[in-house]
TrEMBL record:
Residues 1-20 form the signal peptide. Keywords: Signal. This is DUF4331 family protein. It comes from Tenacibaculum geojense. It holds the Pfam family DUF4331. InterPro entries: DUF4331.
């Protein structure tokens, strides 16, 4: 407790010194221009176009490989792993010919999931799922995890495995803003 009091006091004193040294006049010192150096080698370290998909379907020993694979090559490289994990996780794909509500069997759905990109419709509604449109983008209010759970566990009509098909979070804890930056204000 005493340490926290000392820490708060130091923070307040430092803040006062900084504020006291600030000048509100417009002197002739221009704002410095910063340049960004893009030389060198850069490598993608993580990706998550669709939340939780990478987390759930990529084996732990393959996470780094998946994260650095460009999306156009992910399906060919990882679809079989996704299919094996999908079948192991979901009783909705227990029988040959089982499909999800999109009509996709395990192999086809796994190939869709393995290409970890967020697709966006340029000429239709942008939504993760609105009852008609599926994976055409994402609105802040879209319940992405529940949609993913329904497609993974819900079977042909979303009725299979109801206890596995909902994250039980029906809304954001605060309303989203109607103008930029749209995110809800912090607590």
């Amino acid at each position: 407790m005493k340490f926290n009091t000392i820490l708060k006091s130091v923070f307040i004193m430092a803040s006062l010194i900084v504020l006291a040294s600030c000048s509100d006049d417009n002197d002739s010192n221009p704002t410095p221009v910063y340049t960004v150096d893009f030389s060198g080698s850069y490598m993608q370290k993580d990706q998550m176009g669709r939340p939780a998909i990478n987390t759930v379907f990529v084996n732990s020993d393959m996470k780094d490989a998946f994260n650095v694979t460009i999306p156009s090559e992910q399906g060919a490289s990882f679809a079989s792993m996704f299919e094996a994990n999908l079948k192991a996780l979901s009783p909705a794909y227990a029988n040959d010919g089982d499909t999800n509500a999109l009509g996709l069997d395990a192999a086809t759905f796994a190939s869709v999931l393995a290409t970890d990109v967020l697709t966006v419709s340029l000429d239709g509604p942008t939504t993760f799922y609105d009852g008609t449109n599926v994976l055409t983008g994402r609105n802040l209010s879209d319940d992405v995890i529940t949609v993913e759970l329904l497609l993974i566990f819900g079977g042909e009509d979303f009725s299979e495995n109801p206890n596995l098909s909902d994250d039980n979070v029906s809304a954001n804890d605060k309303e989203f803003l109607s103008s930029f930056p749209y995110l809800a204000s912090p607590w």
